[in-house]
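Researcher: Let's walk through a ligand-bound prediction step by step. First, I give you the protein sequence. Second, the SMILES string for coenzyme A. Third, you return the three-dimensional complex as structure tokens. Ready?
Model: Ready.
Researcher: Here are steps one and two:
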Amino acid sequence: MSSSAVAPSSPYPSLLNELPEHARAVEVLVDRAFGPGRFAKSSERLREGNRKLDDCSFVALDEGRVIGSVRLWPVMVGDKPVAFLGPLAVDATARSHGLGQALVEAACAAAARAGWRAVLLVGDAPYFARIGFSAGPAARVTMPGPADQRRVLVKALVEGGDSGLVGPIRVA
Ligand SMILES: CC(C)(COP(=O)(O)OP(=O)(O)OC[C@H]1O[C@@H](n2cnc3c(N)ncnc32)[C@H](O)[C@@H]1OP(=O)(O)O)[C@@H](O)C(=O)NCCC(=O)NCCS
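Model: Step three, the predicted complex:
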């Protein structure tokens, strides 16, 4: 498993690839950010029985404490492999310093290096639009359960990487 530091565009010193030793703290952080209802989300169906992309999943550490997390997962849309992002969470005490954006950018950069064509997620367009995500190219992607289609967003990592994404999204 690789562990690499990336230069964060935030005041925090380190974004690192998530390691097994971070997993428990990530669960606590995500539980706090999303509450107990998080396992009912359609996105969760794409994580169950799946294996996260270790080289594209990051934690933000502040003096060794996990204060931010982003995970990517391999999925298929039709016959096209794409990386599915989520959950993204930042500790309430550390928000609005660019950390969430830095985590998403680190995950997307790692996914591009690893050869993924696009990153897909379910989230708020006003937040993710500034990081290059849009709903248009994901309009014909169907989630495995109820989802507001306007929140299904995609970012191409290569020229045309967000084109031709049609059909159900499923665990690869
Ligand atoms: C969303 C979240 C990860 C952002 O983390 P962050 O480190 O504060 O993000 P950034 O610093 O990059 O951006 C903060 C800005 O985004 C805005 N923002 C945060 N959530 C937003 C949303 N859902 N829609 C629109 N804007 C949002 C903030 O108001 C802030 O604006 P400001 O810069 O004008 O103050 C964090 O608020 C969080 O963990 N929320 C709970 C979990 C969640 O909703 N995750 C995302 C869904 S996939």
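Researcher: And what stands out?
Model: The longest strand covers residues 65-77. The chain has a mean pLDDT of 92.
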